[in-house]
DNA sequence: TATTACCCTATCGGAATAGTAGGTTAATAG
DNA sequence: CTATTAACCTACTATTCCGATAGGGTAATA
């Protein structure tokens, strides 16, 4: 399951990317439009700024704006920042690998082999979709 | 992320399916072999029995045995029983649909459209793999 | 009749999620 | 220069869920 944090983060990025002008967008505006708790959204956008997706401007007329070209941001990178691993089991995660403490042998583990397939198909979808792609929809 | 419950359940089913004879397998044996908490595993197997995957025999020489042909059990059905929805967001779940309370319109929601693609690719993988398939590996 | 092994209910600690609260800092407008 | 604006930061909290544990009850076998 996708956490609300990730969901809200993607929706916020989409909202910003859909702006006709490049002027900063206020968190309050996004929060109201997307029905997200204002304070919760703030913490998410701070994280996205620190990750290099967004720039921020303080004071009146301030807000958040995109730094990178939406067409250059695959959804995998956004989700990895907000959600963490994309794989359904740590032992098949490419970026957050962790060995199962119960598993003797990954090669003969039925779950492991199956989840590799799921991971690959998911990565394919999320890798082929950029922020620009999902903004169009 | 896959819960340990689902992971253990799949491993247990695989363990039973890999038995050379059709004699019942004890929970204690599975728990020890797969490094699963015995009591926790019991509760999982009860659920799989109630769902119609397993039969149980009490008393000495008792245990659990497969009722259906492993080749006739797609992984989707097992995961849906143990984990619940396969989709990453309730609003794109086929079997456990729930409307988002924050979303105005699913059609224009970027997350919604993206997660439909993820769901479909995941369903394809899990639907094409049966218990027999992952047992072979 | 004793043993075995599934079955049932209840409980529980810990971690994570989804916020909430309250103040601080920096930029802009007047 | 000052007031306002809006991002920024820290800390706290309520709730939920997960994974597991405890302790016995029930049915089948030897």
TrEMBL record, chains A, B:
Name the UniProt record assigns to this protein: Rrf2 family transcriptional regulator
GO molecular function, one term: DNA-binding transcription factor activity
Keyword list, A-Z: DNA-binding
Lineage: Bacteria, Pseudomonadati, Bacteroidota, Flavobacteriia, Flavobacteriales
GO cellular component terms attached to this protein's record: cytosol
Domain of life of the organism encoding this protein: Bacteria
UniProt keyword Iron, yes or no: no
Coiled-coil region(s): none
InterPro entries in the record: Tscrpt_reg_Rrf2, WH-like_DNA-bd_sf, WH_DNA-bd_sf
Organism encoding this protein: Salinimicrobium profundisediminis
């Amino acid at each position: 399951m996708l956490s609300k944090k990730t969901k809200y983060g993607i929706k916020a990025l989409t909202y910003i990317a859909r702006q006709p002008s490049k002027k900063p967008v206020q968190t309050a505006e996004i929060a109201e439009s997307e029905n997200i708790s204002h304070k919760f959204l703030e913490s998410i956008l701070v994280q996205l700024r620190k990750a290099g997706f967004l720039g921020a401007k303080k004071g009146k007329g301030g807000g958040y704006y995109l730094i990178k070209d939406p067409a250059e941001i695959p959804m995998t990178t956004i989700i990895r920042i907000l959600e963490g691993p994309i794989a359904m089991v740590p032992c098949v995660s490419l970026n957050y690998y962790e060995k199962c403490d119960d598993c003797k042998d990954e090669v003969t583990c039925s779950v492991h082999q199956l989840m590799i397939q799921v991971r690959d198909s998911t990565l394919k979808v999320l890798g082929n979709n950029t922020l620009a792609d999902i903004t169009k929809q």
